[in-house]
Write a structure and sequence with these properties.
By secondary structure, the protein is mainly β. The protein has two domains: 143 residues, no CATH class; 183 residues, AOC barrel-like (Beta Barrel). It has one helix and 25 strands. A hairpin with a 7-residue loop joins strand 21 and strand 22. The chain is elongated, with a radius of gyration of 24 Å.
Length: 339
């Protein structure tokens, strides 16, 4: 990203009036759809410990699916909300076979059809390998649909119990749907070397989540409207002085997460160098992606950010919707006038 020379003066113009700013309404949750491919479940079958991860060939589990059997799954994060991403999915799962009328070693229970309990981590990277953060999940697989589940996420009852990076302190609910054609293509013995995982068939899963961040991203609002200014002269965008198609404007926001610096969390952003936002950032203007020129922490602020972007050249005049998203989490829409 390029960082215009006007970045610091514009930031100072807005943040010196911080005492007059108010918070926008925070959304209760955001939808994430994370696709995990090449997933292989390594079953902890009865092989000597010294033979774990040794065989340089595809294997199959050596015992049947009896209760209390466990396995470790490893897969690749390949997209988030339809956009390419990288990362890894790791889960430890134990078969529990809950049934109201148990048979063949199932466990009797008033809850029917939950066949496994699982705990796992999704570590998510940008497409270029930059770390974004992790989500920690735990819960059960199979059985009844739980009220409030994400639409389509019927295959699991996972709670999002925490996160790191851009997802620090996140909570929420996740289901999962098997999207590969044949289930358990990627079933292997724990004796198989996981270094050959990507060269063998694996499953593809889609995890559909309702994510509730600790602090949702938000554009700062002032008594006169959203904190958006003209980059050319630092004056606010107002009906009397609207934005123009193709113009560079700046908005000011909170809760955009970590920056690429090594600054200690909770400490003010330094004067120099400017601290770019670490997570993927997107601005949509009436649904059209805008060119983002800079997104940095404001010097001296702990949780204040400036985003410089160019209005799309074909933006229609009128009251225009602007949506800011960071790490695929959207802030509440704002509206600014455009001539």
């Amino acid at each position: 990203m390029n960082f215009p020379n006007t970045t610091k003066p514009i930031a100072a113009f807005c943040f010196l009036t911080l005492s007059g700013l108010t918070h926008a309404q925070i959304t209760s949750g955001t939808k994430l759809e994370i696709v995990v491919a090449n997933q292989v479940a390594y079953f902890h079958d009865a092989v000597p410990y010294g033979e774990y991860a040794t065989l340089q060939r595809q294997t199959t589990p050596t015992t049947g699916g009896r209760n209390f059997r466990s396995w470790t799954s490893i897969g690749d994060v390949v997209s988030v909300n339809g956009k390419p991403a990288k990362g890894v999915s790791t889960f430890w799962t134990t078969f529990i076979g809950l049934a109201t009328n148990p048979a063949n070693g199932q466990a009797i229970s008033d809850v029917n059809g939950r066949f496994a309990q699982s705990i796992g981590t999704l570590e998510i990277l940008q497409e270029d390998g930059t770390s974004v953060g992790s989500l920690m999940l735990q819960g059960t697989i199979g059985g009844l649909v739980v009220p409030g589940r994400p639409i389509g996420g019927v295959g699991a009852n996972f709670a999002i119990v925490g996160g790191t990076g851009a997802f620090l302190g996140a909570r929420g609910f996740s289901g999962q749907v098997l999207t590969s054609a044949v289930p358990l293509v990627g079933a292997a013995s724990v004796s198989e070397d996981p270094g050959i995982r990507r060269s063998r068939p694996g499953d593809e899963w889609t995890l559909r989540m309702t994510l509730v961040p600790l602090h949702a991203p938000e554009v700062i609002t002032t008594p006169s409207g959203p904190a958006v200014v003209h980059s050319s002269d630092l004056t606010p965008v107002t009906p009397a002085k609207p934005a123009r198609p193709g113009e560079v404007v700046s908005l000011f926001a909170r809760h955009l997460g970590p920056t690429t610096s090594t600054a200690e969390p909770g400490q003010p952003f330094p004067e120099m160098p400017l601290q770019p936002v670490n997570s993927p950032l997107e601005i949509l203007v009436n649904g059209t992606p805008a060119e983002i020129l800079a997104a940095t922490g404001h010097p001296g602020s702990i949780d204040g950010y400036q985003v410089n972007f160019r209005m799309p050249p074909d933006t229609a005049s009128g009251n225009t919707t602007v949506r800011l998203s960071v790490a695929w989490m959207a802030a509440p829409d704002i509206r600014i006038p455009v001539e």
